[in-house]
Prior knowledge:
The protein is an alpha/beta fold. The chain folds into two domains: about 10-165, Rossmann fold (3-Layer(aba) Sandwich), CATH 3.40.50.10940; about 170-480, no CATH class. Helices cover about 35% and strands about 20% of the residues. It has helices at about 20-40, 55-70, 85-95, 120-130, 145-165, 190-195, 205-210, 220-230, 240-255, 275-280, 285-290, 300-315, 330-335, 435-445, 460-470; strands spanning about 10-15, 45, 50-55, 75-80, 100-105, 145, 170-175, 195-200, 265-270, 295, 320-325, 350-355, 365-370, 385-390, 395-400, 410-415, 425-430, 450-455, 480. Strand 5, helix 4 (about 120-130) and strand 6 (about 145) form a beta-alpha-beta unit. The chain is globular.
Amino acid sequence: MFENIPKVKIGIVAVSRDCFPESLSVNRRKALVAAYAEKYDVQDIYECPVCIVESEIHMVQALEDIKKAGCNALCVYLGNFGPEISETLLAKHFDGPKMFIAAAEESGNDLLDGRGDAYCGMLNASYNLKLRNINAYIPEYPVGDAEDCADMIHEFIPIAKAIEGLNNLKIISFGPRPLNFLACNAPIKQLYNIGVEIEENSELDLFEAFNKHAGDERIPALVKEMEEELGAGNKKPEILSKLAQYELTLKDWVEEHRGYRKYVAIAGKCWPAFQTQFGFVPCYVNSRLTAQGIPVSCEVDIYGALSEFIGTVVSNDTVTLLDINNSVPKDMYNEDIKGKYDYTLQDVFMGFHCGNTASSKLSFCEMKYQKIMARTLPEEVTQGTLEGDIVPGDITFFRLQSTSDNILRAYIAHGEVLPVASRSFGAIGVFAIPEMGRFYRHVLIEGGYPHHGAVAFGHYGKALFEVFKYIGVPVEEIGYNQPAGVRYPTENPWR
């Protein structure tokens, strides 16, 4: 399903200080690999046979071995104290995401020749990583037995996938942001800083490519596929051939323009000229491509597309991009939420966009016209939205953004979509996030974030936090919803 996201193979390299038994590190490495194979997919990992023992030559041998084995991520495993120079040189010269973990002592009955002191060695390793300005993932508590360390490596996989993906990502944009949408302004310097390429095109370029796809022989088969997906929700059958033509245009553009990059996300301009020139809205196509692992953001939201891509990789699932849109009316809250769910009125809001959410993430769906746009445009050119209530369940609301001051910031909040009818239009849901009112004021507003947030379907805050740290977002710039009683720096203490 998702060919547009990376797979990782983690090379596990054990290291040993020469005044400690090498066998201790080697045997612990073997136990770690066995523990991983018993619990997880052994295809995720590769056991490097070279144990680095106080030797830069060993480091080179290990580096060559894991590269030959096709590893694109690295786990440096301190089976004992470890050689601080050669182990950090390995991390320095490995071109990909890396992590450091350390072996715990196994038994109180074997603390003579069986003691490895990796607990101590991890401190030296972390010091040397900072000394050489090397980014590496170190788990919250990086010391454990074989099974513990296997769990740590498994938790590293979505983080490593995101880092690998960003290092090989191109964002393709079409057009400038819509008029009066300064919030979608995207300073691109930070994209380059985290390894992302961007290709900026005009809407005219896209329109030309679309027109060249008129009569494409693949259109009828794609229309049939759309009809099967929509089922009874196919309320605008007359527009499907144009939508199919547009989808083929985008897919061909991706293949022709990805260049040396492996992965692609799209930021498209969807109004106001789009409707009058193309004759439809692109929402349904955006939803389909996102479901296929090619995230598409609305309104040329470049950092929205970037956030969607990260969420897709971390969750290994479809994401969506929504407006943090409107408050829940008091009467609706009193009727449908109060006393049924443990949320205040300020904890709930409605997440909405015109119709870009994948059908698999909607409780029901129908193709309709874009009601907001139809207030100023003929209804017939606003057809192509995919509307319905978003499926209830756990979600993570998040975003990575270079804000107006060119600082890289991010936010993450766990919450849920409530099983409450929206009573409205578009792709929409009633969202609940604990302490949302304070998060809205002291993270979203104070942080200068735009109105779009990416939504992953599940709780992925732990992995996202580590991804953002790894790529260089200052930890003080990663906002999250503080629990009640924990004050934000900008929060008035005399409420």
